[in-house]
Design a protein that fits this description.
single chain; 117 residues; mainly alpha; DNA polymerase, domain 1; 2 domains; 5 helices; 2 strands
C-alpha cells in the first residue's frame, strides 16, 4: 500500500472520528427546560412552561427536607434520594413519577411545595 493511500485513509478515519465525537456531544446535550417539557411526550401535570417554585429544592433536598412534603414518609423520602442518585437530577415534575410510590395524584399533592431549579 502506498504512503499516499495510507495518508488518505488516515485522514478519512480522523475526519470520521471527529464527526462521530461532534454528533455524540450534540446528541447528549440537555435540552432547554421549556423546549423539553413540551417535546418530552410526557403526560403533563402542569401547563406548558409553568414550573413550581415551592420551598423544597428537590435536587438539593436531604431526607429530612423531603419529610416535610405531605404524604412523604421515610421510605418514600429514601426512594426519592435513591432515584436522584442513580439517574441524576429531576428536570420536570413528571420525573418524580419514576419513583415507586409516586403517581400522578401524589405528584399533584406535593407539587406546590417543590422547586426544580
Amino acid at each position: 500500500m502506498s504512503e499516499r493511500l495510507k495518508h488518505r485513509i488516515g485522514l478519512i478515519l480522523l475526519w470520521a472520528a471527529a464527526v462521530t465525537c461532534l454528533l455524540l456531544l450534540l446528541w447528549n446535550q440537555p435540552a432547554r427546560k421549556q423546549d423539553s417539557y413540551t417535546a418530552s411526550g410526557r403526560a403533563g401535570v402542569l401547563p406548558e412552561a409553568v414550573y413550581p417554585s415551592g420551598t423544597i429544592r428537590i435536587n438539593q433536598a436531604e431526607a429530612e427536607d423531603l419529610l416535610e412534603l405531605p404524604g412523604i414518609g421515610e421510605t418514600l423520602s429514601a426512594m426519592i434520594l435513591e432515584e436522584r442518585n442513580l439517574n441524576g437530577p429531576f428536570f420536570y415534575p413528571e420525573d418524580l413519577i419514576s419513583v415507586k410510590g409516586i403517581g400522578k395524584q401524589k405528584l399533584k399533592q406535593i407539587l406546590e411545595y417543590l422547586d426544580f431549579d
